[in-house]
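User: quick one
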Amino acid sequence: MTFRQPARPGQRPADRSESDRLLDAARAARDAAASRPGPAAGREDTAGLGRPDRDPLARLLAAAAGPTRPGELAGEEAALAAFRAARAAPAPTPAQAPRRRRLTVGAVAWIGTLAATATAGVAVAAGTLDRTEEPAPPPAPSTAPVSPTDSGPVTPRPTRSDPGRSPAPTATPGGVGPSTPARPGASSADTRAPGRTTGPGHSGAGVQLPGLCRAYLAKSAAQRESALAKPGFAPLVAAAGGAAEVENFCRDLLSRADSGRPPPAIPATPAGPTETGRRP
Amino acid sequence: MAGELNEAVVAAQAGDEEAFRFLYRRLQPGLLRYLTALVGAEAEDVASETWLQISRDLPTFTGGEFRAWTVTIARNRAMDHLRRQRRRPSVPVPVQALSDLAGDADTAERAGETLGTEAALELIATLPPREAEAVLLRAVIGLDAETAGRVLGRRAGAVRTAAHRGLRRLAALVQRHDPPPTAVPSATPPRPRADRSASGTPHVGPADGDVRGNR
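Assistant: Done. Structure below.
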C-alpha cells in the first residue's frame, strides 16, 4: 500500500482518480459493514481495504460512512407508521394519473370534434370541453339556459368528471380526498362511476352520448358499422346495449334531448338539481 | 447490496412492511448524516419529512437507483427547510446534538467508534457546501459520480472535481493534526476496529478539538 502514497501525505489525493478510489473504498466499506452488522464488519475492512487503517483520509471517510449509530434509527417507528398510513389510503400514483387523464382528455376532445362536425349545438360543448382540461376554469355558463349561477351541473354535456367530482368529499370513499384532491378524481373515474347514481361519472357519459349519437347518425349506413368498432364509440355501444341497438337508442336519446333542453345522461337523472344539492 | 435494496423496494411497493423497515435501516443513517451537513440540528425533522414523502411516493418509484431517489427527496426537503429558515446550506454540525445521538454508547471501544464518525462528519461539514455534498453523496450515501451529479443537477465531472477538492482539504485538515501515516503504529491488531478506536481517537481527537476551536 505504501506505493500508493507517492509524495508527502499532505498532498494526497494527487488527482481526481485517486479521490474517486478513496471515495469508492469508503462506499464499499460502508456497504460491507451494512450487509453484515457486528464484529464481522470490521474483519471485512482488513480483508478488502487495509488502507482505512493507515491513511488518515481514508480512515476519516470510512468513519463518516461508519456503522449505524444508536440514535440514527430513532425515527423508525414513525417512518413505518407513515408507510402504513400511505398503504391504508394509497394515493393514486401520479405517474399514471396524468397519463389516464391525458388519454381521457384526448378521447373527449376527439369525440367533441366528431360531434362538432355533426351539429352546431354540440360544437359549443366541444369548445367548452377543451377548456375543462384546465382544472380551474368553470365551463362556459352561456350554454346553460337554466341556472347560470352554478357552473358545473347545469351544463351536463361539458361537465367532465373532474371539476364536479374533486370538491365533493363523498366522491373519495377511500379517504384520500384531503391529500391530493385533484388526482383521485382523475384516476378513479372508471372504477367509481358505475356505483354512483347521480354521480359525475354518469353525467360524464351523458356528455358523450348525444354527441356520439349525432356523429353516428350523421354517417352513411355503410360507415356506421365500422364507426361502432372504433374505441371512441364504445361507450355508445355499451350504453345502447349492443351495436344493433345503437340506432334506436340514439334516435330515442336525441328526440328526448331535442324536446327537453340539455340531454340528460342515460339514467335520466336530472343532473342539475342533484348536483347542486350535492355540492358542498 | 444494490440487488438486496431493489428486492426490498419491490417488496415494499407491494406493501411489505418488513421490507420497508429494511430500507429505512439501510438508508436512514446515510440520509441523516447528509442532512446534518445541510441543515444541522434540524436534520432529524427533515429526515422525518423525507420518509413521509418516501412512504407516500414509493408507488411512483419506477426503478433506477433507489438511493439516489431517496437522497433527492431528502435534498429537496432540506432545501425547502432552508428556504423556510432563510439559512445558508453550510451549517456547522452542532456538537451537542451529535453527542446526544450517541447517548448510549457505553464501552470505550464503542465510544471511540462513534466519536470517529461524529468527528469525520464534523470535518466534512466544514467544507464548502458543494464539496461537502459531493463527498457525502459519494462516500456516505454511496453514489457514483454520475448519479451524484444527477442528484445535484451537475455534471459528473463537476462532482468529481468538487469531491477531489474536498478530499484535499480534508487531507490537509487531518494532516495538520495527524502524524504521517508511517508513524502510525502499523502492526495490525487482530481486530481493525480496535485498531481504529485505539489509534483513531488520538487522531480524530485533535481534529475534533480544532473544529470546535475554529468556530
